[in-house]
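Hello again, I could really use a second opinion on something today. I owe you a coffee for this, so here goes:
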Amino acid sequence: MGKTCQLEICANSVLSALNAQEGGADRVEFCQNLEAGGTTPSLGQVWTARALLSIGMHTLIRPRAGDFLYTDIEFSEMKADIMSCKEAKCDGVVIGILLADGQVDAVRMAELIALARPMQVTFHRAFDRCRDPFEALEVIIGLGCDRLLTSGLKDTAAEGAETIARLVGQANGRIEVMPGSGINEGNILQIAASTGASSFHTSAKVEMESAMDYIGGEVGGMGDTVWVSAKEKIRHLADMLKSRY
């Protein structure tokens, strides 16, 4: 049987997750606050999405935006959220913790991974802030993570393609290296060819028009824009990957 490609959608809502499923994605990374890089969704969102999804559902465990150096209280929150995801029968969790010097926090990661099993574990783009990606890759493999999400330490996967290709080669099948950030229908096949990766991560998002008839007041910072993963974009990406093999 030929090689197959996997499409993961970064879904910031239940609607986005359902669009991912209907568009032909293989799984979702379920989160909220995508405009801040993504944080852990609410329990209500997790349980609702799990009830409606038949594709893989991996939930982001990130207690706040910002860096990946967490306090003891934040670490406790992460453990509680992992247990909630396990209770909800999520297929996986997406986590990442660094030390102050930019190395992977192997001690805390090991604790979270043990807590998460038998769910799958993805190490997320905290990796793109690490000090030495090739050293960090070996630590992450040693911890037993199933997958690494990375943009190759650049803003986008297209910019980081050379580094991603080196990581894929170094991993040599010991872990799935999944490019993410800025992937779209205009570059996904080029990124696949240049990196050797077979799993790809994108939000495929579009701005959803507000249904409000009245938007009043002069209050800033509340936000009127709603972003949603688009079923049509996801279908196009999924079809492109299927046609590659």
